Amino acid sequence: MKRWMIGYGFVMALGAFVLTWLEYQHAVRLFSTEAYILVLAVLFTAMGIWVGHRLTGARGKEAFEKNTRALQSLGISEREYQVLELLAEGCTNREIGNRLFISANTVKTHLARLYEKLEVSRRTQAIHRAKALRLIP
Question: Alpha carbon of 50 to those of 1, 18, 43, 53: distances in Å?
Fold first, then answer.
């Protein structure tokens, strides 16, 4: 991180030196002040985007690995897990039923059992708890 900040500071100092050198070469007389401000703004914007991308975009996404031990210890069945995955996608009970070819009442039953096993009382709590246990990505 320090290396990037030092590099960024060096580039800024180099840019200031180049602008000062241009001023001494009487290039200021050739172009208006607004043109220099525009060039400077574009350069610093591009440099900021580049540095930001290098600092934040370098993290690789780790592959999700389902916590099978937690699934077994909680006693979540395969069908309940499918309901949980669709719940995390934001599906309604009817949509979950249509995708799994089960009735909406069966979905409600699976959800009630999931809430009990995850010790929650709402959909959002179930999703949050499942993510904390690494059951879903």
Answer: 14, 20, 11, 5
Spell out the residues 6+ positions from residue 88 whose beta carbon is closer than 8 angstroms to its own.
127, 130, 131, 136
Which residue in the block uniquely carries the two structure tokens 């395969």? 78
75 DSSP 8-state letter: T
3-state percent helix, strand, coil for the chain, nearest multiple of 5: 75, 0, 25
- Measured distance CA(83)–CA(88) in Å, rounded: 9
For 123, the token pair is 């959909």
| Per-residue confidence (pLDDT) for residue 123, from 0 to 100 | 92
pTM of this prediction exceeds 0.85: no
Q: How many residues does the chain have?
A: 137
